[in-house]
């Protein structure tokens, strides 16, 4: 007899971290944090560009993983099936977390110089940068590595006027016209959509997306709503 | 023909889509020589143009040579870039140590790049987690975990059986696990 067992999520998490919750994260339950992580992971996978970072969620998840891991070890091996199920749940959470970070790293590596420039601009405009400080350091080092290796292998041996290389210009720009499935978590006003009736570029219609409605829509139209958390991608 | 050396570089990469072919130092040098030659020819032509010794139609010669220079440069950079991407894949699939079979195929700059990349990744990973505690290894858990649970009835004595995550079960005849 074979079965793939799934423990109800809240039961699994709560029994794993009973009594170990920090006082200052009492406002957000572990199930909430996991829900936020799942949403962030899904959004990051569906979006063609790098989204603003959710390292607050990542940090809480990491501390909870530590707690869960310890509880699991203290639990002992008496009831081996329950132990296995909890362990699998923990593995899943770790996988979600790692996959989220890997997806972001991939996007950063693809266009590191361009993203650094964009974040600089965001900071000047008073907005939050998209990359966390850790990721920014990574992007800076990565760009520098690329420039160094290009210089060493090719550019330094060329005549001086040919040595210029602007990585930010060469980085691939995300295709924001790509269609994505989006769900509105709140009623969103002012979503602009390219008008299909008019052939001219830039003629737009403004629509309202009701709460809990799902649409297939160009990413450009919902970008600001995804950033603010009013919509999520499927 | 102009730009043929550069095309050979790209063809070499395409012929071996999965592995990292040995660094073709020779071809790279020839491309650089080609660029330098074209560049020098351009300088001479420009001087002649400015001095009025040749007609204005020579300007299109300049443009053609410059286009060839740009193309060769682009091909060389693409060559290096794609080798780096393959090396990066290697780090994620097999870990941070290069076996000698691969090392032989890389130029010195690439080996240095690989080490620096591994170091960068390690710095990033250790910076995660609260106050840089244990950090996270991002190269594990590449796939969602999935395991089937099975209820087993033992037909024969087997003593101890160890599963993939280290749990031990004592199997005796006719016992249910």
Which class do the helix and strand fractions of chain A yield?
Answer: alpha+beta
Please give the radius of gyration of chain A in angstroms.
Answer: 22 Å
- In the CATH hierarchy, what is the architecture of the largest domain in chain A at level 2? Up-down Bundle
Residues in helices of chain A, as a percent range: 40-55%
**CATH class descriptor name of the largest domain in chain B:** Mainly Alpha
CATH topology of the largest domain in chain A: Methane Monooxygenase Hydroxylase, Chain G, domain 1
Distance between the termini of chain B: 74 Å
Helical content of chain B (DSSP H or I, runs of 4+): 55-70%
By DSSP, the count of extended strands of chain A is: 6
Sequence-ordered SSE layout with sheet pairings:
The complex is a heterodimer of chains A (234) and B (177).
Chain A: E1 2-3, H1 9-16, H2 30-46, H3 55-75, H4 80-110, H5 112-124, H6 133-153, H7 167-170, E2 179-184, E3 188-194, E4 204-209, E5 214-218, H8 219-228, E6 231-233
Antiparallel strand pairs in A: 2-5, 2-6, 3-4
Chain B: H1 4-15, H2 25-51, H3 58-94, H4 100-103, H5 108-127, E1 149-150, E2 159-162, E3 168-171
Antiparallel strand pairs in B: 2-3
Protein name (chain B): DNA replication complex GINS protein PSF1
GO biological process, one term (chain B): DNA strand elongation involved in mitotic DNA replication
Subunit structure (chain B): Component of the GINS complex.
